[in-house]
Specification:
eight-stranded mixed β-sheet; 4 helices; globular; alpha/beta; 8 strands; about 20% helix
Length: about 210
Amino acid sequence: MRSEPSLNEGINIRRFAVIGHRAMNKGKLPLNDLAGGAGRMDVLVRAVMSALLTSHDLRSNVEVILHLQGGPGPHRRLKFIGSELRGFHAEERSVAGLIAKAIREPSPAIGQWIERTPGLYDGGGTLKHTLSEWSDSVIVRLDANGERLWNQDEAIPQDSKPNDQTITFLLSDDQPLESDEGIPRSLGSTWLQGHHAIAICHFLLDEGVQLNL
């Protein structure tokens, strides 16, 4: 049991906080109905996979916190730490199974993290608590109505030079993110699905495109 599990100090981290407005946070997760009875848990599962997986590997410098707000009971958080994960597979039902195993257990108190499986931690709290724990990050709230995330006329570098900042991206499920936290930045005028938005963020960071922060 740890209070604030995180990647090693000194590593530049990519963080994603995903709000699941209706995502169930306790009980038996209906694996055959992730889009309905589970409260659009399918959206959160795809977000986790996009954040953590490359074609044949896991990103070791990534943390993801899912905010399960659909009840029953208080809000719950699940944190995935890329450098510690084991048994994480590129298959939605498998990832949903890890979540299901966690939320069968009693919800921990706010500020307490319990490791449910290697690299997956379970805790109480809200987005406010997450941002407090990630206060060393630049906070970016993805918002199609904001300024573009990259600088005007910025070219994609010919050679990949990964961005070395520690950045937190805030995004939501299929409902709007009602928060004024962070710097509002857009990936374009079209509202994208969360896992697509995460993939674009990774691309910009992987290639070292100059960001508008």
